[in-house]
């Protein structure tokens, strides 16, 4: 199943919450967040929140402990482990950030299931403050996408993932919920699948623009549905690959007829 690539969004897909909002709420930053919300781009705003925590004497480990309390549904964990054990290539493409995603996934024993994580990078500076940077370097040329925030175009990332496989054929299953997940959905082909979370922005956009979507759409509402549908699709792809392999290894149709035609005296 190495030919199946499963790409997950993170916030409100792998976890039911938003990791940025989780830290803001749990660490008492709501008032300052609301004050600055309209004045800064999201990435800069979250970096500013880290500055505030550092000024309060909160450490990176304090932030990590907060993230470890963020719940992850057991059905999602089971889906990830099952897809990985079946040989699928799992990736995360998210507008959260590296530290948040890695901390939560590692805490739940799932980090090793993912071959790559594409998200806003982080580092700890010389003062011990967690810094959050944009995925796309703002000093470079603009990527020209009017569907995504300037800091991360998921469609650009998905193009990069596709190109990295070279000429080999891959089937993609993309799971997401947000507006930023619409751009990569448009990159999927008719042999691929998209799993939008029902009644969330991605689902709304797909419903409003069905003719733009080549991939087969399978909506989900709960973590249990996510697991059931994802594993069903992986199984269906596996069966089709087995059938195609069997057909391609058989003699052509005329040879089959000549071999099976009865001989009468």
TrEMBL record:
Q: By what name is this protein known? A: Uncharacterized protein
- State the source organism's domain of life: Eukaryota
Membrane-crossing segments per the record: none
Query: Where does this protein have coiled-coil stretches?
Result: none
| Biological process according to GO | ethanolamine metabolic process; thiamine diphosphate biosynthetic process
Record: active site? 9 (nucleophile), 11 (proton donor)
Provide the GO MF annotations for this entry.
metal ion binding; phosphoethanolamine phosphatase activity; thiamine phosphate phosphatase activity
The cofactor(s) it depends on are: Mg(2+)
* Electron transport keyword on record: no
Identify the residues that bind substrate.
Answer: 20, 95
- Pfam families according to UniProt: Put_Phosphatase (PF06888)
| Stretch list, region Disordered | 246-265
């Amino acid at each position: 199943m190495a030919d199946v690539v499963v790409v997950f969004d993170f916030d409100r897909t792998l976890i039911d919450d938003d990791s940025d909002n989780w830290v803001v709420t749990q660490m008492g930053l709501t008032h300052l967040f609301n004050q600055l919300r309209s004045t800064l781009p999201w990435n800069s705003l979250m970096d500013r929140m880290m500055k505030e925590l550092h000024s309060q004497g909160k450490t990176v480990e304090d932030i990590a402990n907060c993230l470890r309390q963020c719940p992850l549904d057991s059905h999602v964990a089971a889906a990830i482990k099952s897809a990985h054990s079946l040989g699928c290539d799992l990736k995360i493409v998210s507008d959260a950030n590296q530290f948040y995603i890695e901390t939560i996934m590692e805490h739940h024993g799932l980090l090793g299931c993912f071959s790559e994580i594409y998200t806003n990078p982080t580092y700890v500076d010389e003062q011990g403050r967690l810094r959050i940077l944009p995925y796309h370097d703002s000093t470079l040329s603009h990527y020209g996408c009017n569907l995504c925030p300037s800091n991360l175009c998921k469609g650009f990332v998905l193009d990069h993932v596709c190109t990295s496989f070279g000429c080999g054929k891959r089937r993609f299953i993309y799971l997401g919920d947000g507006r930023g997940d619409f751009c990569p959905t448009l990159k999927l082909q008719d042999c691929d699948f998209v799993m939008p979370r029902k009644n969330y922005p991605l689902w709304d956009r797909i419903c409003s623009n069905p003719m733009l979507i080549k991939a087969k759409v399978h909506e989900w509402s709960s973590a249990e549905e996510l697991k059931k549908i994802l594993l069903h699709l992986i199984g269906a792809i596996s069966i089709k690959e087995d059938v195609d392999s069997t057909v391609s290894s058989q003699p052509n149709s005329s040879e089959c007829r000549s071999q099976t035609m009865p001989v009468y005296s």
